[in-house]
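A further point concerns the way the authors explain their paired sequence and structure data. For illustration, here is how one protein appears when written out as sequence plus structure tokens:
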Amino acid sequence: MLVTDVQEIDAYYRALLDRAADHVGIFYVGVKTTGVFCIATCRARKPKRENVVFYTNFKEALDAGYRPCKVCKPTENAHTAPPDVAEAIAWVRQHPKERLSDCQLRQRGLSPERIRRWFQAHHGMSFQSFQRSLRINTALEELRAGRRATDTAFDSGYDSLSGFAYTCKKLTGGAPTEAAHVILIHRFTTPLGPMFACATARGICLLEFVDRRMLETKFKDLQRLLQARILTGENQHTRQAELEVSEYFAGTRQQFALALDTPGSNFQRSVWLALRAIPYGSTASYDKQAEKLGQPQLVQAMTSANAANRVAIVIPCHRMIDENGGPASYGGGLARKQWLIEHERRNVGAGGMPNRDNTNQLVHIASPVTGT
């Protein structure tokens, strides 16, 4: 929200002048004279007190019309793991079968309490839960590769096969030999804020900003449709998603080569395919899109199917506008939608990387009633 308390504003302004690292992510300062917003540690020349406003959430700064500062990159750096947390994460990813205890963290000069707070705030789980998920995911990968459950269990640090089976069932809902079907979730940052990438062994099934409306509902629907539980971890698809989305924001990618695993009705899938046919840098209205596809009566159904899309940017629902040329709605926020549209228009002539999928053709929209 917009900060209005004078004493709080004064404290935030002092923190801005001091480049106070402990205030990163606590406030976002909008600079009236430049139209940008920054985090506390920004190295740019400091604005005068009367030329700044403070927000507690970067999305509110975006909604107010401010652009992310190119110096401090607030939407990325405010949510990037600080050095001590990043060090702990890097160690765990390099040693996925081992457990990094609080005692070991302290021996490395790291604060377990600070790391726990960061994980709860940014991942919604404890650091130990994060480690358990990675260990189980690594074990499941080995089981899928044909390794014996007993060998995998002891090699992953479990004292018994039963203990391994209990933890696996608790996290995935099934025994180790039955739990091959899981949804892995990976968090990464972008210029418009952090995103979650979820993937099965087949491909990306969700790509959303972490503060998207109704995200918890989308998680529940996804688990129900795929009959799998969400588990922290990475695979080739989540890593590819992070790479391609980064290239998209850098302006070097206009089409995506990601494999997708998007459960839905035949009608929903055909609408999502039609969304991918809208050219980069362009927009389309629901009524015009329905007319092109020969079924103008399906505008409302197309709107609902568009809202059910779980793969932002790659399935570009941000390119849909209303019949009057307005932005319509967007689960990630209208400010983000406008930014994405303008970003593509700026880079439309810059080339890009080819897409394996043939999505540049209009497709037949199935009936929402029959699904055929």
About this structure: Strands lie at 28-31, 36-38, 52-55, 67-68, 183-188, 195-199, 204-209, 230-232, 284-285, 320-321. The first helix runs from residue 6 to 18. Residues 153 and 161 are 6 Å apart (CA to CA). The chain has a mean pLDDT of 84.
